[in-house]
Structure formats: structure tokens, C-alpha cells
Amino acid sequence: MQTREDIFNILRDALVELFELDAARITLDANLYQDLEIDSIDAVDLIDHIKRQTGKKIAAEEFKAVRTVNDVVEAVYRLVAQEA
Fold first, then answer.
1. Using alpha carbons only, what angle is made at residue 19 by residues 60 and 71, rounded to the nearest 5 degrees?
2. Domains of the chain in sequence order
3. In DSSP terms, which residues pair with 31 in a beta bridge?
4. Chain-centre distance of CA 33, in angstroms?
5. Torsion angle of the four alpha carbons 34, 35, 37, 42, in this order, in degrees rounded to the nearest 10
6. By the 8 A CB rule, do 32 and 38 touch?
7. CA distance to 20, 50, 60, 76, 84, per residue, from 13 (Å)
8. pLDDT tens column, 9-21
9. How confident is the model at residue 74 (pLDDT cuts 50, 70, 90)?
10. DSSP string, 15-45
11. Residues 66, 72: Cα–Cα separation, whole Å
12. What is the DSSP string of 50-71?
């Protein structure tokens, strides 16, 4: 099973690759919308990327509550923990 740190590293790499962000800006406390300037279309791309990586989709309702990078890490962690 992946640890939260593993998930964060994968997520950070995805944010750098998908949105050309500086990896140094991506911290657990970073707000996706304000700090990283991710918009709703980018969020859909991110959900799709997570689905491809994990084979599981984050429910749109759950993603609406996501504000920080840590929120995404926790949502993905819960997804992968369900398969264990």
C-alpha cells in the first residue's frame, strides 16, 4: 500500500507535469486554487490523472471539498486504502 508521502510525491510530479508548476510551490498546505492557480477544468484533468494512476475515480462530490494538496493526498489515500 502506498503511504501518504508516496501519494504526495506522485501528486507533486503530476502537478508539475500537467500544469508546469514549480515543484517548490507544491506543499501539503498549498491551496490548489489560490496558491497553485488550478481552475475547475484543471481539477477535472487532475481527477482524470488520478484515475489513470490508481484505477479508481475520486467522486466529484468528494473533490468539491478538496482545497489543499493535503486534501487530495487524503482523498487518494482513502481510495487506495479501500482496495487493501
1. 40
2. 4-83 (1.10.1200.10)
3. 68
4. 12
5. -100
6. yes
7. 10, 12, 22, 15, 24
8. 999 999 999 999 9
9. very high
10. HHHHH---GGG--TT-BTTTTS---HHHHHH
11. 6
12. HHHHHS-PPPHHHHHT--BHHH
Cα of 72 vs its chain's centroid, Å: 4
pLDDT tens for 10-63 read 999 999 999 999 999 999 999 999 999 999 899 889 989 988 888 888 877 777
51: cell is 484515475
C-alpha cell at 58: 475520486
**DSSP single-letter state for residue 11:** H
Residue burial 21-51, b: 16+ Cβ < 10 Å; e: rest: beeeebeeebebeeebebeeebbeebbebbe
Question: If we measure between CA atoms, which residue out of 38, 36, 31, 28 comes closest to residue 70?
Answer: 28
H or E element: which one contains 2?
none
